[in-house]
Amino acid sequence: MAMAVFRREGRRLLPSIAARPIAPRPIAATRSPLSSDQEEGLLGLRSISTQVVRNRMKSVKNIQKITKAMKMVAASKLRAVQGRAENSRGLWQPFTALLGDNPSIDVKKSVVVTLSSDKGLCGGINSTVVKVSRALYKLNSGPEKEVQFVIVGEKAKAIMFRDSKNDIVLSVTELNKNPLNYAQVSVLADDILKNVEFDALRIVYNKFHSVVAFLPTVSTVLSPEIIEKESEIGGKLGDLDSYEIEGGETKGEILQNLAEFQFSCVMFNAVLENACSEMGARMSAMDSSSRNAGEMLDRLTLTYNRTRQASITTELIEIISGASALEAAK
Prior knowledge:
Helix content: 55-70%
Family: Belongs to the ATPase gamma chain family.
Shape: elongated
Subcellular location: Membrane
Pfam families: ATP-synt
Organism: Camelina sativa
Protein name: F-ATPase gamma subunit
Strand content: 5-15%
Order of helices and strands: HHEHEHEHEEHH
Largest sheet: 5 strands, mixed
């Protein structure tokens, strides 16, 4: 637009200028108060400002593409894991009815198993389980009590190593690198049982409810000795005493097998529930990021248009002022 006006004004004024030469004389109206270097600096500043805004818009568009792609990937993974997590709930529920789940039981040796993710950008699910784990540590600590940690996941490991490094007996990462199955989780459960001594295992994880809702949950698995002890003193347990034991195995051996199988089933469900919560939280986080990027892009577009319009208006004013000065100089 500015160039069109310039050409039109130039075609109209050049014949008259060529026909009658103008004697050189000072024209105060056309003289700029700035030097040539300052004028070039201002023109360069306008050009750079629009270029900076354009580069920023390009960066925000690229970030928006990445967040949208991450949201789609998380949604795909969530659909693959959600059904398996819902089906796995039927594994540990019979054990809860049989052996009970008493998170408030007072024991001397407690092991807190904290489940987290290996990657970030998934909201506050990792900080939530860490807060619950620390609360359990304070609740079960005492002069004659011992509390230790087993960390599953890189994010909880990075947080807990800052202030509880001496209490961590085992840490496992990259559990979700391959598709989760019961055999993989049972090997992990067996490693935990071999490396720690416990009276109660407290598994802290995020239970999946929906894409935007998850609940920090604590599941308790007691050792066979504590189960037998609580059963003898009439503690709050499940329906184990209502069953008769048949065969050559003793009650202690049966409780040992049941406790190990219960822990592996609870761990399998907890890992799947936590994976679902991670994908749902990542979907929500990436959706919010995409919307924020869109809002920022709108603001940058408005800023760019205003800057560009101001530059065009300034150029038009300069051209029209110059043309008016030439008209007055005839």
